[in-house]
Design brief:
Helices cover 41% and strands 21% of the residues. It is built from 14 helices and 16 strands. A hairpin with a 3-residue loop joins strand 14 and strand 15. Helix 5 packs antiparallel against helix 6. It binds guanosine-5'-triphosphate and magnesium ion.
């Protein structure tokens, strides 16, 4: 049994076997099963499982009762017992019947890809809302199967209990209990969401544009977020390192302030329950002024990952085709050969900004492009202000982009770019009074 030191305490790792079914109908798809297996290993490692055996199993025809045919079932009965594996992960979705039958045949706990991802999310969620959403997703998933026949296992972790054993009191929970818990969580969530909406409204009063980082898990969103905001959110070579969104204020080179948000990463076959559960958290993405899609271009399946991300964004209701409010970051260029790098250097900024969040190469270009993109949605107008009116001038510098400045004897002419909202604010705050007293003039 492997033991891993985690934050000072020794943690006993559960031995697990990982199987990636390679379905015949997938042959010819662009996905490399070896990479899929590696990704699934990464998922298992994200919750410190000790993978003692990992294998790709070619599945010619799916057996409805057990997924795999007799040969595989027999072979793995032995492998499970030789390794004394406490868990078998099947990297695809299993029907409740397949799960139950495999558990009986292999005399061990079985989870599928959705169960595994839910388990990771259960361990990672930090905020009250995150925890509730994950629990809701887990209950919805569980309700559809109600297996939990693995009572022989000791519960060892604080996750959701798909991997754990008894101790979880609801081993025999019936649908009624689950439904009760679901409606209770939904009510609690409503409360949390209301509070968050209030916060969001408060934030909206701050006129800063919202810029959100999205992307495949491990693409480098949090690393980029840290570079741009000069902060230290958790960024690690770990799938789903981030779960709860974080927001920080950032000042762009032009002096414009934005709110930048780091978000949960996406993955292929993201459980639908989770997409639904995180829709609320990802509302920030829906309302963003700019969505930055961070890609790991050093990953051999970067194009596939891109498609997966676009698919999730579409499910969330975000227009992804030629959306002027989206831009792509081609991250991790430090890992590319000079040849591949050439390929990206001919990219126009509209297509993507090559950079390395690690070496900070290309960060300046990104900041410029963010500025440029946001500026495009803004109003340009000229103002004439008495040079003694420091507050009004400072306000314009802080909230807008000064494109031109001409200093005359007692007056300053400014050509400014402001959001429409800010322009109204400025007019309300400074123009009214100053028009009376200081003869200020605003024209489009
Ligand atoms: N070589 C290299 N590694 C990078 C770069 N950016 C990020 N990484 C590494 O990639 C790994 C994942 O980075 P994160 O920033 O945690 O990725 P994320 O997109 O936030 O991942 P999740 O929160 O799991 O969705 C870490 O080990 C980073 O150090 C880069 O530009 N170059
Ligand atoms: Mg992250």
């Amino acid at each position: 049994m492997a033991i891993k030191e985690s934050s000072g305490s020794l943690k006993i790792l559960q031995k697990a076997i990982l199987l990636h079914p390679n379905f015949r109908h997938n042959v010819g798809s662009n996905r490399d099963p070896n990479l899929r297996l590696t990704e699934a290993k990464g998922l298992a490692e994200a919750i410190s499982l000790d993978i003692v055996h990992a294998e790709i199993i070619n599945v010619r025809s799916i057996k409805p009762s057990t997924l795999f045919g007799e040969g595989v079932i027999k072979a793995f009965s032995e492998i499970v017992s030789v390794h004394q594996a406490e868990l078998v992960i099947i990297d695809s979705s299993l029907s409740p019947i397949q799960q139950r039958n495999l558990e009986k045949l292999w005399k061990t706990k079985i989870i599928d890809r959705t169960g595994l991802i839910l388990e990771i999310f259960g361990e990672r969620a930090q905020t009250a809302e995150g925890r509730l959403q994950v629990e809701l997703a887990a209950l919805l998933y569980q309700k559809s199967r109600l297996v939990r026949s693995w009572t022989h296992l000791e519960r060892q972790r604080g996750g959701l209990g798909f991997i754990g054993g008894p101790g979880e009191t609801q081993l025999e929970v019936d649908r009624r209990l689950i439904s009760e818990r679901i409606s209770k969580i939904k009510k609690e969530l409503e409360k949390v969401v209301r509070t968050r909406e209030l916060h969001r409204k408060a934030r909206k009063r701050v006129p800063y544009p919202i810029v959100v980082l999205v992307g495949y898990t491990n693409a480098g969103k949090s690393t980029l977020f840290n570079v741009l905001t000069n902060s230290e959110v958790f960024a690690k070579d770990l799938l789903f390192a981030t779960l709860d969104p974080t927001m920080r204020q950032v000042r762009l080179p032009s002096g414009r302030d934005i709110i930048l948000s780091d978000t949960v990463g996406f993955i292929s076959e993201l459980p639908t329950q989770l997409v639904a559960a995180f829709r609320a958290t990802l509302e920030e993405v829906l309302e963003a002024d700019l969505v930055i899609h961070v890609r790991d271009v050093s990953h051999p399946e970067t194009e596939q990952q891109k498609l997966d991300v676009l698919e999730v964004l579409k499910k969330l209701g975000i227009e992804t085709d030629d959306n002027p409010c989206m831009l792509e970051v081609l991250n991790k260029i430090d890992l590319l050969s000079s040849e591949s790098l050439m390929h990206f250097s001919v990219y126009s900024p509209e297509k993507g900004i090559p950079l390395s969040a690690l070496t900070k190469d290309g960060i300046d270009n990104l900041l410029k492009l963010i500025d440029h993109k946001l500026a495009a949605s803004l109003d340009i107008f000229t103002v004439e202000i008495e040079s003694t009116k420091g507050a009004a001038i400072a306000w314009l510098y802080q909230h807008g982009e000064i494109l031109e400045r001409q200093d005359h004897d007692e007056k300053i002419h400014l050509k400014v770019r402001l959001t429409k909202e800010n322009r109204l604010k400025y007019e309300k705050a400074y123009l009214k009074n100053s028009a009376k007293h200081y003869n200020e003039k605003v024209s489009s």
